[in-house]
């Protein structure tokens, strides 16, 4: 019922905007003024992946459209947790009761760019998906730029599917894989194929990470095994006014409250499945350490992941824990890239470590890691979080990472290079969308290379292009 009320609230606001636009209310961008774009994102929770995505999105889009031509705003749930992020961009506070905020912010801008990767799915929270659909729908209702950038689609509950089909059909959706295109095509939504936007991210230098790891007990030479667990069974988060009332009056549901009226899934079955997952991480790591000289670290890519890290550490005393509460995105990714091997339930732990050629495998709760591994040609390097034989399979996957590290890294390098080019193509899709919506906007003239659509590439990424770009390798062979 709470999801229905939220969807109805947002839908009414979209229809009001559409009605007002028909009668001349609202204003479009005019030549000579800066294009004001609102980046609707899931920031301010210290989710490293979400923050990295938006960081690179802002850098790329500012480059493509020209910094002198644009004025950006981005949503955040906590100014404290995004302090120092998103340089040159105004941050606006996203409240729990977000429909009035969306109505106001979208109305004050010339367009919306929806940022989250897990954008169109009910796996995490219908409220989150409603937020992104609402942002896109409000922009479309006024014929403004309405763009989902590097998004993913999965299973949606019927109410959310209907809302998505109705209010996203006039938006441009750039997905990060073919599987998401299929989901949205079934809803009558046109898409373009893109990728994630984290590929160009550049963290702090390796010297910073090596010092942080030494301070945590690393000897400077032992190969590092990064473990990135989550609590996969508390999702989806749902709004519940009944639970909120009980929480305020009797103190019930304290452990399962996420924030405000939103509560995690909980109960005996959730706890049983979680213990099985944690035991698999703990026992497989212990067995792998007996066979291999490694220095395991636990990494909480989001603040919520710290619970799982501590539970694993309880069974493996002495393992250091790096949490996003203590390390910002520049620090966290720098630490991840010092790893030799990785087992992760966090999609962006894998993505952001790939430019360092970290041999990684995934333990996935949904389609994101599975899709990435299939793109890499590594179907044998992902497991599901609820596999009954998770512990022996996880140990086997660790052994495979160690044994086949070189060919795995080859596939990773080729995937990074391929995705850099796809990310560049997303810049051309953006230009086309701007051209259709605001024909007089001053886009860059002339013939541009694909690299002109990306933020300046680091020395590391240029090295990967030299080593793994098939065209570059062929060119050197032809002239060698």
Helices and strands, with pairings:
Blueprint: H1 2-22, E1 35-40, H2 48-65, E2 70-76, E3 90-93, H3 99-107, E4 111-114, E5 118-120, H4 126-141, E6 145-153, H5 158-167, E7 172-175, H6 178-185, E8 191-193, H7 206-215, E9 224-228, E10 238-239, H8 241-250, E11 257-259, E12 262-263, H9 268-291, E13 295-300, H10 306-315, E14 321-323, H11 329-336, E15 341-344, H12 347-353, E16 359-364, H13 367-376, E17 382-384, H14 390-403, H15 405-437, H16 459-468, H17 470-479
Parallel strand pairs: 1-2, 1-4, 2-3, 4-6, 5-6, 6-7, 7-8, 9-13, 9-15, 13-14, 15-16, 16-17
Antiparallel strand pairs: 10-12, 11-12
Give an overview of the whole structure:
The longest helix has 33 residues, at 405-437. The protein is built from 17 helices and 17 strands. Helix content is 48%, strand content 15%. It starts with a helix and ends with a helix. It has helices at 2-22, 48-65, 99-107, 126-141, 158-167, 178-185, 206-215, 241-250, 268-291, 306-315, 329-336, 347-353, 367-376, 390-403, 405-437, 459-468, 470-479; strands at 35-40, 70-76, 90-93, 111-114, 118-120, 145-153, 172-175, 191-193, 224-228, 238-239, 257-259, 262-263, 295-300, 321-323, 341-344, 359-364, 382-384. The model has no long low-confidence stretch (mean pLDDT 94). It is globular. It is of the alpha/beta class and 480 residues long.
